[in-house]
Amino acid sequence: MTLNEGAPQAVQLAASRTELGNSAAAPFMLGGGEAGRLLRAIDWSRHPLGLREDWPVILQTSLSLVLSSPQPMFVVWGPDFHALYNDAYAQICSHKHPVSLGQPMSEIWQDVWQQILPLFEQVYAGASIHMDDLELKLQRNGFVEDAHFWLSYTPLKDATGKVLGLFCICAETTEQVMLKRKLDREQAALQDSEQFLQSVLAASPDCIKVLDPNGTLTYITQGGRLVMEVPADTKVEGSFWPDFWEDAARDQAIEAVAKARAGLGSRFQSYANTFAGNRRYWDVRVTPMPNAQGTTERILAVSRDVTYLKKMEDEREHLMHELSHRLKNAFAMVQSLISQTFRQALTVQQGREILQGRVRALANAQDILTRSNTEQMDIAEVVEAALLPHRTGEGRFVINGPVAAINGRQGLGLSLALHELATNATKYGALTGPDGTVSIHWTVGANHTLSFFWRESGGPVVAVPNRRGFGSVLIERIVASYFDGSATLDFLPEGVSFQLTGIIAPLDAAPATDPY
User: Fold this and answer.
1) pLDDT tens, 91-130?
2) Model pTM?
3) Element (H or E) spanning 413, and its range?
4) What does 136-201 look like in DSSP terms, one character per residue?
């Protein structure tokens, strides 16, 4: 009996489909709302991208992230730029959805393709692109309309560094841009009419203030009092406006007043508390209001609460960092699995079947990590996902243990170990007969010490294998290194026994050396 041989592909796929339906062969395509359902319904055997089970891991991982995100995202793959997107991006496509799903970008956006193609070509040449305002004239909803977007394009590469596709996070900002242009036009008109100035200032929800040339507040709109949460009985006129800010932001406000006094406009962004003590992020424009002689008589200061946009930007940066981090971990592990599996496989077909099972176990664990939107996953969820293809509904597994979080690298390693153990039990061990069972339990002690056990019973008499393959090395050495602990795999006559002890690491950190 050896642990480096996976169950035949057809058996594994049949077991998966019994539990999950036709989606089990592609766990990276689970969920995703309407877009996910439509992608799963496509006959990929007739599509240029081919069977989804044969897609590269980087494409599978990227699509999993796309489908699980509420942010508009898409993956473009192959030389013809076939697009796979989520529900949020479908709204941008408008009437072009759902027929656009899986189609080349040149067909989806025919009207602006010559403008988009050079960007794609740059990314396929290896460059990453970020644009705060891409303006396009799109044919949507039966007419041509101006549309604005911010976007980030990242190349997707294979192990050799060749770019095979791109990953995009984007958002349509047309409404915000149109609103900004409208406000700019209105602010320009304010200089021509004091009456118009008063009406616009009274109606605007922004915090609009008028200062004297020295920076003293002389007027604030009612909307400004509301957004700044100024109490009704509090008089703010006569205050030195830069005192509303703290530290470096106060210096920026003083500098803005000085520039306006000299006839120059300026802009800055910073945090400041409202009068109720609530922290807000403001986009501030300071504009001189000259008299007929060209001397700055008053200063217009418009503060817009952009806390929500700031939060979105921070989340986008975090998402890109997290995507890069997870892809690097996944690529390193897959690269090692490929190398070790085919090094010890007796035939190419055997290696292919074993590798497919291991990559599928990795994909299941990665799916848990993606759904959790954190760098951690629960041990119980990892166990359930790893055993899902091997369950028959007959209560063959007895699972018990407390809630415990492990980092992403530990979760991927544990998922691989459970896949190897379950595959071996199905072929040679307790799961070959009707009476065999597997007991899985774990405990967490002081200082985050984990003790994890796998014990088989009720199966055929176990014989010690003549040689140990990569599966044994994976279980005893590699996985143990992720937990900074030790693992033992015993072939007892009554059944295989596995014990892992180590430290649960709440933060995902790579080991100093690669155990592969």
Assistant:
1) 999 889 999 999 999 999 999 999 999 999 999 999 999 9
2) 0.37
3) helix 408-427
4) EEEEETTEEEEEEEEEEEEEEE-TTS-EEEEEEEEEE-HHHHHHHHHHHHHHHHHTT-HHHHHHHH
